[in-house]
Every structure is written in C-alpha cells, then in structure tokens.
UniProtKB/TrEMBL annotation, chain B:
Protein name: ABC transporter ATP-binding protein
Record has Acetylation as a keyword: no
Signal sequence coordinates: none
InterPro entries: AAA+_ATPase, ABC_transp_ATP-bind, ABC_transporter-like_ATP-bd, ABC_transporter-like_CS, P-loop_NTPase
Biological processes annotated in GO: transmembrane transport
Keyword field: ATP-binding, Nucleotide-binding, Transport
Domain ABC transporter as annotated: residue spans: 4-251
Domain of life according to the entry: Bacteria
Keyword Nucleotide-binding: yes
CDD domains in the record: ABC_NikE_OppD_transporters
Any one GO molecular function term: ATP hydrolysis activity
Listed SMART domains: AAA
Length: 355, 304
C-alpha cells in the first residue's frame, strides 16, 4: 500500500471535478481531517491505482465533464437547419440529423440526461437496497425474514418486461424523468439488497459490533457508525453497478419509445436515429456517437468496479500482486543472465521492497 | 461498589433439524456471587457453558430461568439502561473486538460519551488518554490516534480493557482474555487486570480453560462440565485437591513436566490413566466449603 499515496491524491483530484457518479467520492472529504492524523482506514477503502482503474476513471471523468459542461458550450440541440443529414464537417463536428439538428449539441444534452437518470436511479436503488438489506439483517428474526422475502420476490420479477408494462401504463404526459427513475430503481434494488444482507450478517456477528452494543450504543449508531463503514466498498460497487444498469435500462426504454416524455437521453437519440432511418441511409454519425458514449461509460464504470472488487475480495489483489512480482523476478533473472551492470538490479530490488 | 448474585441460572437453546426440535441445556442451575475485590474463575472445556454465562451476564442473551441480581452496596438493584454502566466485558479475541475502521480513541471515547462520564470533546480526549495510560499504553496520545491493525494483540487487549472500564464498570467479565495472546505477554495482561481490580475494587469473573492462570489469578474456582458446576471452592483447594472426576481429568490434561517424568517419559503414558469420559457424572458437585458432595436436585429440594 506504500506506493499508492500520490496516485490516490490524483484520483481524489479527478473525483473533485466529477462529483456525482464516482464511487470513491466519500474519500474526498478525508483531507478535512487534522494534519498528521493517520488515514489508514480510509486508505484501506480506496482501490490501489492500476492501469485498469486509471482507464476507467479517465473514461468516466471525460464523459461526466462532457455531460456537465458540454451543454453550455454547444448550440441549441433542437435548432433546425436546411443542412439535413450531412456528415461531420467543420461547422457540425458530428454532422446533422435528418432535420438538420447538430448531433454534437444533441449528444451533449443527451449525455447529461442519461447521467442524470443514472445518478438518480443509482442513489434510489442504493438507498432501497441498503435499507432492506442492512436494516433487515441487523434486526434479524421476523423483520429479516419479511425483508428478505420481499427482495426475493422483486428478484424473480423479470425486470425489463415489468418496466415496459409500467412505463406503458403511465400516461405519456405524466411520464417524467422521476417516474422512469423510480420505476428503474424499484426493479433493480433487490440483487444488491441480497448482497448487502449477506455482508451485514457477516459483519453483525463480529465481536466489535457486540462490544459496541454492550457499551450501550443505540441501534442506529451501531448500524451507521460501526457496521456501515465496513460495508462501504460493497455499497460503492453496488452503486456503480446500479448506475450502469440504469443508463442501459433507460436507453432500452427510450429506444422503445417508452422513456421520459420531455427529456433527451442517449436512448431517445438512438430512438430518433432509428425512426429517421439512419442505418439504411448510412448516417453513422447519428447513431454511433450515442452508442459509443453508452458503451464507453459502461466500460469505465465496470473497470472502476473491478478495482472496488479487489477491496471487497483481497484475494483478487493478491493474485495480481503475485503475478506482478513473478514478472519482475523473471525480468531480473533475464537481466542478470545477460550480464548488465549490478546497479540496475539493486534498483529494481529496492523498488520491490518499497512495494 | 457493585456485586452480582447469580441464582440457578439456566439457559436452553432450541435446535431445529428439519421438523424435529431438540432442546439443548447450555447452562443448568448455576449459582455464584461476584463481590468487589474478588475474582471467580469459571473453568471448563469448550461447550461447557462458560461463554453462555458471560452472554447472560452481559444481557446479550436472556436466561431461560434463574436470576441475575446486580446491586449496589446499599442493596439498590441495578436495572435497565444503567446495567451496562456496571457490568462490562472483555472479549476473547482482541483481533475481532475492535472495529478496524475506527481509531483507538473512538473505541474508548464512545462508552465515556454514552454513559455521560464526559461532556465535551476536550475532556473526553483527556479522559481517553488517562484511560490508555492506566492500561500501560504509552505514549497514549499517539496510540489514541492509531487504528487497531497498527497495534499488537497485547496492546489491543489493553485497549479492550480500557473500553470495558470506561463507563466506570465495577463488574468485569473477562471471557478468556489471554487465550489469543502470545504466552510471553499473557502474564502482563493478567497482572494488569489484577492491578485494576485492586485499584477500582472490581468484581471479576474470569472465564478460562487454563487451570494454571485460574489458580494464579482467582480466589474461587467453579468447574463447569456440560452446563453444570461439578466442583467449586477456593482456588488452591480445587487445583491441589480435586475431587470430581472431571476436575481430575482437567488437572491431568495440563502439561506438567514433573508428572510426565514419573509416568515414563511420554505424555501418552499420562493420558492413559485418565478416567473414561463417558462415566463422568455431572449431576453431583463437590463443594470444598461444605466439604461434601451435593446433588443438583438435592440442592433444589433443600431450598423448597
């Protein structure tokens, strides 16, 4: 863990500029702690910097910045012009739609819409799963049975068909962003709740929870202060997963024409591209950018999630460290075999020790 | 000062296997008193009910029957939410009993704040440092800022003791407090407990499976076997002059270099003379104070 210090600072820096969707967010307020205070526990919660994590963070940061800042820099996405269905040019970097709207402007607004819905659903689903998973498991007994039955029922309900039915049932006028977010959150919290329940059951039975109850802590403090911090990596991972699922789910809904009525998201862009015969007309600049943004954002979040998984399951990390060590050892062997100078060898050993 | 009187404490657990339900009596009619400045040791093998008694005393479990009376010197009973201010516990595993996420200061400060021993941040911090110094954790200022994984097992157990004493507890239940520690630091922790007991007039229940430390550390020993007390009396009498078959077995099971030599050089030689386990009767108890055997049912009948 000794070598991650500066990298983590870098990560915290990117987090600060991209507030909403980043899971290591809670760590960002650590620097508020008095100087010289050990921050080992927070550090344990932060993933160690790997090329994968860096790629994921960069992808997510770029897309989030594009979604947050982009809409102010581009023109009106709905402005119609007579240069319909033209390819990328100096005037329209990503070309135009059938009705001459600028694709880049649309993409910026659509990215913002998708991020918004992803964040909303991520928060809602995490709160729901935390309540039913953690609280139920902490209470135990009848409440646990009831909550776990409820999440099992929600788990076996096929998600997308239900979402389609509900979205189709709600009249189009009242089908706002929040309706879609609530519908998506309601169908996606159950799996996380089960994971959190299992984890809580394990943490709850540890001695330090018994000890804090014994010293007279109130139940909400035992859950919030003693149990919850130990679940943060799991929560973060579930949150990231919920955001990916929400953005994909919303894109699917909008593509079917069942999305929020007055908003523009990546899904509605694809919907209009499909309706405007972008594919048969070969207008790739209309449907490739939104698809690519969805794919890259999902990929970035997944890469971040893999790094969070390493905190939850340190065995994954140990495997990676072992592989790296073996590689370094092989390299050293090769170097000493070819007979280069000894200083390089000692330098790499020193690096090894530092790790 | 606080004392505890335990009368006929019984705890049943219901075991479910499929539709069949069986009752397991983990603790059966156990009685003892914890008084200030004295240590009672509960000795017995795993599953004999030692830890269940600890859980019952700390109210982590409810007794099936029997009474636990905690009272002050003037006989006012201790009940409800102040119970935890008087009865505290040191857990067996110092690696599991401290939350890895929080600093040492948090662990000691919380009981102080919960039980209103201190009222603001500055006095809490001063008190935490004082508590850590009392359990020989120096430099206390720095240790307060550390997290459990930065301390050794012995240091952690000292933190656990400081936490248990922080509410001002007068009754301390020590559930195998040294069994997870290196042999070299066990005596240090036990001596610390002994010193704190003298300074604070604590009543201590020392739960262990180690007869040697039980004799070293306690005044009275209760030997538990399958939930029942099978022998009780002053520490030296129980260890040096065991009457019950199970106590003899425990005494023989402890490695003793002199005895091994006399039996022929092997531990197996010593083990062969142990009485057969099946024959051990846990319905009778030898009471060294009475100097006689007592049958569990007799005791009940005598009282009725």
């Amino acid at each position: 863990m000794t070598n991650i210090g500066p990298d983590v600072q870098v990560a915290a820096g990117t987090v600060a500029t991209t507030p909403p969707t980043d899971p290591p967010e809670p760590a960002a307020d650590v620097p508020g702690a008095p100087a010289g205070r050990p921050r080992a526990a927070w550090r344990m919660l932060l993933p160690s910097m790997t090329p994968w994590l860096a790629t994921g963070l960069v992808l997510v940061a770029v897309i989030v910045v594009f979604g947050v800042v982009g809409p102010y820099l581009v023109g009106d996405p709905d402005a119609i012009s007579d240069t319909g269905l033209s390819g990328p040019s100096a005037e329209h970097w990503l070309g135009t739609t059938q009705t001459g709207q600028d694709v880049l402007a649309q993409l910026a607004h659509a990215t913002r819409g998708s991020l918004q819905i992803g964040l909303m659903v991520g928060v809602l689903a995490t709160v729901l799963s935390a309540f039913f998973g953690i609280y139920g498991a902490y209470l135990g007994g009848f409440a646990d049975e009831a909550f776990s039955l409820l999440s099992n029922v929600f788990l076996v309900i096929p998600g997308l068909p239900l979402v389609i039915v509900i979205s189709g049932f709600v009249p189009r006028e009242s089908r706002g962003l929040w309706t879609i977010a609530v519908v998506l959150a309601l169908t996606s919290w159950a799996a996380s709740a089960r994971v959190l329940r299992a984890q809580t059951l394990s943490v709850r039975s540890r001695d330090y929870v018994a000890a804090s109850r014994l010293s007279g802590e109130k139940p909400w403090r035992v859950i919030g202060v003693e149990i919850l911090p130990n679940l943060l990596p799991v929560l973060a991972s579930q949150f990231v997963y919920a955001v990916i699922a929400a953005i994909l789910g919303e894109a699917g809904l909008s593509f079917l024409g069942l999305g929020a009525s007055n908003s523009s998201t990546l899904g509605t862009m694809l919907f209009y591209a499909q309706n405007g015969f972008a594919l048969p007309l070969g207008a790739w600049w209309w449907f490739v950018p939104p698809g690519l943004v969805i794919a890259l954002f999902g990929m970035g979040l997944s890469l971040i999630n893999f790094s969070i998984d390493e905190i939850i399951n340190p065995r994954l990390k140990n495997a990676r460290t072992a592989r790296r060590r073996a590689k370094a050892a092989r390299r050293r062997e090769r170097r000493s075999a070819t007979g280069t100078d000894g200083t390089a060898g000692t330098a790499s050993t020193a690096q090894e020790v530092a790790r | 000062m606080t004392s505890v009187h335990v009368t006929d404490l019984t705890k049943d657990y219901t075991l479910r296997s499929g539709l069949r339900r069986t009752r397991l009596r983990a603790v059966d009619r156990v009685s003892f008193d914890l008084v200030p400045r004295r240590t009672v040791a509960l000795v017995g093998e795993s599953g004999s009910g030692k830890s269940t008694i600890a859980k019952l005393l700390t109210r982590m479990e409810k007794p099936t029957s029997g009474r636990i009376d905690v009272q002050l010197d003037d006989r006012t009973p201790v009940m409800g939410s102040v119970y935890q201010r008087h009865v505290q516990m040191v857990f067996q595993d110092p690696f599991a009993s401290l939350n890895p996420f929080h600093t040492i200061e948090h662990h000691v400060a919380r009981p102080l704040r919960i039980h209103h021993r201190t009222h603001d941040a500055a006095s809490t911090h001063a008190r935490v440092v004082e508590m850590l110094q009392r359990v020989n954790l120096e430099p206390a200022e720095q240790i307060a800022l550390r997290r459990p994984h930065e301390l050794s097992g012995g240091q952690r157990q000292r933190v656990a003791i400081a936490r248990a004493l922080a509410p001002g507890a007068q009754v301390l239940i020590a559930d195998e407090p040294v069994s997870m520690l290196d042999v070299s630091i066990r005596l240090g922790v036990l001596n610390l407990l002994g010193r704190l007991q003298r300074e604070d007039n604590l009543a201590v229940l020392y739960i262990t499976h180690d007869l040697a430390t039980a004799r070293h550390f306690s005044d009275e020993i209760l030997v538990l076997y399958r939930g029942r007390v099978v022998e009780r009396g002053p520490a030296d009498a129980v260890i040096l002059d065991p009457h019950h078959d199970y106590t003899k077995l425990l005494a023989l099971a402890a490695p003793d270099p002199e005895r091994v030599g006399s039996v022929g050089g092997t531990r197996r030689g010593a083990a062969r003379e142990l009485p057969a386990r099946d024959g051990i009767d846990n319905s009778v108890c030898y009471d060294h104070d009475l100097g006689d055997w007592v049958h569990v049912d007799d005791r009940e009948r005598a009282r009725a």
